[in-house]
């Protein structure tokens, strides 16, 4: 019998190789779960209502003639179905989630508890303002913190994600340009090659032409390159800082000056603000607009904890164009402004039907208040320290595209070190799944070949980082020794083996048709 390091018996060798196949297909706690359409039938549950007497449909013949076809399960069956599915998922609550650029930080339970207080969670967007003063106070307080931390003039809270915030900030820039009568001439936005895909998409969506700022070998954007691209046709630059290569843009102040001298605006993608909160204020660096991903920087993992929220801070030059609604105090009482009142306010419109993501505001403010200014600063420092700890611990095995220099909150490796091993970045990521880790961000940023972007966040303890590093080192040495089979078929232990991602992308099957036989569905 094989024993593990704690002396407990384990399956011998490769887990599962000596295991008897089970009748159900389940492997103890790892339970097979078919699609709900395969196990549920609409006849099995629901409420039987008596046929109404003398009922004449008033839908003019458009009423449904056949069964609706929704699957039905009893309550325990429905609960098991979703709980089992949730157990197949990987989440920040089950393990380290090193997804670079996504900031999968721990969502403190305190923040969740506050967001679920009935006064916040049950608040309705159509309630009279006089009944939601507490909610307005949360929004106002959060706004003050965001403006203070960034040293800007105002903030538009309502955007519902980072990309939505980009749209908001760029619309404010467009409105400012139009107000100056330059709407026809300034139609170009500079976007560095290393930018998140949402940046050029945002600029293009509202009618700007994207002019790329070419990448350099050192990973930084250079003011000389920006100056060469500037002209009377340039409306703005969209620059990420810290950038997607995990580096602080060391010429950001000079770039801001050059942009302003050319009469353009500086949009900063602030999704990586979590690396500098309490250390640097973007307003001091010359930004005019920046979205903040509350879900990344101030509690809540990206995409993993419910809705996002992307407030946009604005400089004095853009503040008059901030969208409605916003909050003001009238005779000491907070109220929502839904329409511009005087000529100093020229809101470009509104981003959302109502007021944004209340739950995210509460989580973010709870995070801020429970950390305090010193705690927020330490979170940034710890995030950067953790990323550099991983960088330094892997630097002898993994190659870094921009030389062995310190990173910010995320460390970027490329695939040069995998050359001639027969293992690709994708294979390596899949093998990480077998080791119980969510893969790091792969193939982004695009400027780096075979990119592996790792962001541990401040949430991870040293013990957790050490195990992660040891696992990556073990995999790396395996790859270098030519043990390709550990990678080529990975993941071996996940509920689903490697999927044909090309086929899934090219010919996606978006509609469920008929139940596949059980064994086939499990392949
Ligand atoms: C996450 C991210 C975004 C987009 O944020 P969403 O909330 O996912 O829309 C934009 N830019 C960068 C650099 C990011 O990391």
Automatic annotation (TrEMBL):
Top-level taxon in the UniProt lineage: Bacteria
Top EC class for this record: oxidoreductase
Keyword annotations of the record: Oxidoreductase, Pyridoxal phosphate
Glycine dehydrogenase C-terminal domain span: 379-481
Stretches for region Disordered: 1-23
GO BP term, example: glycine decarboxylation via glycine cleavage system
GO MF entries: glycine binding; glycine dehydrogenase (decarboxylating) activity; pyridoxal phosphate binding
Keyword Oxidoreductase applies: yes
Catalytic activity: N(6)-[(R)-lipoyl]-L-lysyl-[glycine-cleavage complex H protein] + glycine + H(+) = N(6)-[(R)-S(8)-aminomethyldihydrolipoyl]-L-lysyl-[glycine-cleavage complex H protein] + CO2
Keyword Oxidoreductase: yes
GO cellular component: cytosol; glycine cleavage complex
SUPFAM superfamilies attached to this UniProt entry: PLP-dependent transferases (SSF53383)
EC nos: 1.4.4.2
InterPro entries in the cross-refs: Aminotrans_V_dom, GDC-P_C, GDC_P, PyrdxlP-dep_Trfase, PyrdxlP-dep_Trfase_major, PyrdxlP-dep_Trfase_small
Annotated ranges, domain Aminotransferase class V: 183-303
A Pfam family hit: Aminotran_5
Function according to Swiss-Prot or TrEMBL: The glycine cleavage system catalyzes the degradation of glycine. The P protein binds the alpha-amino group of glycine through its pyridoxal phosphate cofactor; CO(2) is released and the remaining methylamine moiety is then transferred to the lipoamide cofactor of the H protein.
Protein name according to UniProt: glycine dehydrogenase (aminomethyl-transferring)
Native species: Microvirga brassicacearum
